[in-house]
């Protein structure tokens, strides 16, 4: 071997592929699904979604068993591209769980459409693996590549039920908004990169502003740099698009309504969490020396987001729009946690806990919506839920628990999530924001309980709007998942146990 | 010299980019996009990033814009009637511009424009972007993981095109 290749081989050897074994497994499973569709006889292709779900559960179990891998806290891997942390481990589990639940919803929703099935699971798995990498990114190149993989996958998933004009509209709007936000984010990254330049370290290797640690050192030693300030503002704006924070929330209602219900659930939970997976390390570890710039921006955004989401949701009758706009408000509460994180380190754990409670409650609600939504997936009105409690008491109970948890009613998990975030914000002294957030919670009770009320009482029989949903028997897998989600929502409200200790201690 | 060329290429890029937006004829807009990309390629060449400049001309100006033109001509899109500018649009544009200028002014006032130190580079070394070998080495060592992820990105993009455009018979969906 020529000697000038040796340093390269050594450098390539620093790519520790075992550190990202779960992501590799997901990628392989995604490829396997495509192969299976080719080789299996037609009669057995119905097994493929089951294979996707079971193999993901296996990856999840392996991930939980290996929760404390030696890579955590051992510094960056992949030549500085990735950094493994406890929070990253939580987010990996979170995204995997969201993907499994979305697959379960997909097994109910997809057979009602005349569309190919397997590609849905394939794309979903690749997107999930990219999100898991995103949660561990330590380098802007890795971050952007992973984020683009997520976004491109979601463009396809959002417009998956292409027979429906509303779905196509949602896909187009998401495509344009997503491209715009990626452009803004990329511009911000470029400005930061340009501001830092090339920094040689002791052993002569050049470091650039792409690396989080190099950028953080530059920002700490150069307070008030114009290029860096502009870059930070643009990066925050790009991330705000992804989490649907005001004033970048205009796409939310239309896209959530038009997207297939399982994809709406994935957007609401996993995509939002991905935004926070990007925001948390950037805001709290890279940008803290520019806190005087970042905190006012995030504070104004959080207050406006909470108020806009809740007030806009008040007037909605389409439940998908309603849940989308209420999701905007939830992004506002989470932003409050991020802001508190600047002075209260345990606020990060509070954000994680809130995200987990939000996952449980959201998938419970979306599961019921998927079960009740007919073949026309985009028009699900509150009237369709009339008398649900008498006809399908199980679904009505799951719906009530999920909505109650989203509203933050004690003793459900959502209440504990809000409590830990609000406590952290109180300790950090953000009283004004806290007041706005509590106002938002009070407003939200109105529309969440309006929905529960619609499900508990018969609506006025109106022959002009025939009930389009199907009240067939609940699918077994979905019923199991919904039951588990509801039980977890209740239990986590009473007893946080090891999970709460782990998350709040991160 | 390099300064003058920088201004020339920047001006050219901006003018043609405006041309993309304001042109009513889609073919003209696509051709303006092509010229704009050539301008950007010139800027890359000034930065010693010759490979990027060549790739931009080959891939974007050559292949992608040609694809745009094919589709535009295939669909035979006529200019059509475009709604005239409404007053609200103009007002919103002005307000947006004012907010942008105010934001930039606030940032500049906060920090001062010329606060970036000249980046230090290792003396004598050729610029990283100038040598093709450097790109190859980086792609196969440091950036191997992103390259693999991009592979998956292209795979799902291809899947997406199939799913969103192919016709499926009813029994196919079983």
Description of the molecule:
- The complex is a heterodimer of chains A (506) and B (174).
- By secondary structure, chain A is mainly alpha-helical.
- Helices cover 71% and strands 1% of the residues of chain A.
- Chain A has one domain.
- Chain A contains 20 helices and two strands.
- Chain A has a two-stranded antiparallel sheet with strand order 1-2.
- In chain A, β1 (198-200) and β2 (206-208) form a beta hairpin.
- The N and C termini of chain A lie far apart (46 Å).
- The longest helix of chain B has 26 residues, at 50-75.
- Chains A and B meet through α1, α5, α6, α7 and β1 of A and α4 and α6 of B.
Keywords:
A: 506 residues; mainly alpha; two-stranded antiparallel ribbon; 2 strands; 71% helix; globular; B: mainly alpha; Four Helix Bundle (Hemerythrin (Met), subunit A); 6 helices
Secondary structure: elements and pairs:
The complex is a heterodimer of chains A (506) and B (174).
Chain A: H1 6-13, H2 21-39, H3 48-65, H4 86-109, H5 118-134, H6 140-158, H7 165-196, E1 198-200, E2 206-208, H8 212-221, H9 226-243, H10 252-258, H11 261-286, H12 291-314, H13 319-340, H14 347-372, H15 388-391, H16 393-407, H17 413-428, H18 431-456, H19 476-494, H20 497-504
Helix pairs in contact in A: 2-3, 2-5, 3-4, 4-5, 4-11, 4-14, 5-6, 6-7, 6-11, 7-9, 7-10, 9-11, 9-12, 10-11, 10-13, 11-13, 11-14, 12-13, 12-18, 13-14, 13-17, 13-18, 14-16, 14-17, 14-19, 14-20, 16-18, 16-19, 17-19
Chain B: H1 2-22, H2 26-46, H3 50-75, H4 87-111, H5 132-140, H6 144-165
Helix pairs in contact in B: 1-2, 2-3
């Amino acid at each position: 071997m020529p000697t000038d290749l040796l340093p390269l081989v050594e450098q390539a050897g620093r790519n520790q592929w075992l550190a990202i074994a779960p992501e590799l497994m997901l990628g392989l499973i995604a490829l396997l699904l495509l192969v299976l569709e080719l080789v299996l006889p037609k009669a057995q292709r119905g097994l493929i979604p089951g294979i996707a779900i079971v193999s993901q559960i296996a990856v999840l179990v392996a991930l939980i068993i290996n929760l404390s891998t030696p890579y955590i806290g051992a510094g960056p891997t992949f030549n500085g591209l990735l950094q493994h942390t406890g929070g990253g481990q939580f987010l990996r589990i979170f995204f995997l769980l969201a993907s499994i639940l979305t697959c379960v919803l997909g097994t109910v929703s997809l057979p009602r459409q005349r569309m190919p099935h397997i590609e849905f699971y394939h794309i979903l798995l690749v997107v999930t693996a990219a999100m898991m990498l995103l949660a561990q990114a330590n380098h802007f190149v890795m971050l952007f590549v992973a984020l683009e993989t997520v976004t491109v996958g979601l463009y396809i998933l959002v417009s998956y039920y292409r027979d429906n004009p509303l779905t196509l509209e949602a896909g187009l709007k998401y495509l344009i908004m997503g491209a715009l936000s990626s452009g803004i984010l990329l511009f911000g990254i470029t400005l930061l990169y340009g501001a830092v330049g090339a920094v040689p370290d002791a052993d002569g290797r050049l470091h650039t502003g792409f690396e989080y640690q190099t950028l953080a050192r530059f920002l700490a030693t150069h307070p008030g740099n114009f290029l860096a300030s502009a870059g930070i503002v643009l990066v925050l704006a790009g991330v705000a698009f992804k989490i649907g924070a005001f004033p970048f929330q205009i796409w939310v209602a239309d896209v959530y309504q038009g997207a297939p219900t399982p994809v709406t659930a994935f957007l609401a939970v996993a995509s939002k969490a991905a935004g926070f997976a990007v925001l948390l390390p950037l805001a709290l570890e890279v940008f803290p020396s520019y806190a005087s710039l970042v905190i006012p921006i995030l504070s104004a955004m959080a207050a406006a987001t909470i108020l806009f989401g809740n007030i806009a949701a008040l007037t909605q009758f389409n439940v998908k729009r309603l849940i989308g706009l209420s999701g905007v408000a939830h992004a506002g509460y989470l932003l409050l946690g991020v802001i508190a994180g600047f002075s209260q380190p345990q606020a990060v754990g509070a954000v994680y806990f809130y995200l987990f409670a939000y996952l449980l409650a959201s998938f419970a609600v979306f599961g019921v919506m998927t079960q009740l939504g007919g073949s026309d997936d985009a028009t699900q009105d509150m009237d369709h839920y009339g008398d649900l409690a008498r006809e399908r008491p199980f679904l009505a109970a799951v719906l009530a628990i999920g909505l109650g948890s989203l509203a933050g009613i004690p003793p459900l998990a959502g209440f504990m999530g809000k409590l830990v975030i609000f406590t952290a914000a109180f300790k950090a002294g953000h009283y004004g924001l806290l007041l706005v957030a509590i106002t938002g919670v009070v407003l939200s009770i109105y529309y969440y309980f309006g929905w529960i009320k619609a499900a508990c009482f018969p609506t006025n029989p109106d022959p002009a709007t025939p009930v389009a949903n199907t009240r067939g028997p609940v699918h077994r897998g979905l019923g199991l998942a919904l039951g588990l989600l509801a039980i977890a929502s209740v239990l986590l409200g009473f007893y946080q146990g090891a999970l709460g200790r782990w998350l709040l201690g991160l | 010299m390099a300064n003058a060329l920088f201004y020339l290429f920047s001006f050219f890029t901006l003018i043609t980019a405006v041309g993309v937006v304001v042109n009513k004829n889609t073919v003209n807009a696509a051709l303006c996009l092509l010229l704009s990309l050539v301008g950007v390629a010139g800027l890359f060449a000034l930065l010693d990033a010759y490979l990027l400049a060549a790739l931009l001309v080959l891939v974007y100006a050559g292949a992608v814009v040609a694809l745009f033109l094919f589709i535009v001509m295939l669909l035979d899109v006529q200019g059509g009637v475009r709604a005239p500018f409404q007053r609200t649009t103009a007002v919103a544009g002005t307000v947006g511009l004012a907010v942008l200028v105010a934001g930039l002014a606030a940032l500049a006032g906060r920090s001062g424009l010329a606060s970036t130190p000249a980046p230090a580079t290792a003396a004598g070394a050729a610029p990283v972007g100038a040598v093709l070998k450097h790109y190859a080495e980086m792609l196969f060592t440091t950036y191997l993981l992103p390259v693999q992820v991009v592979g998956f990105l292209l795979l799902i993009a291809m899947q997406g095109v199939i799913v969103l455009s192919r016709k499926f018979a009813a029994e196919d969906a079983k």
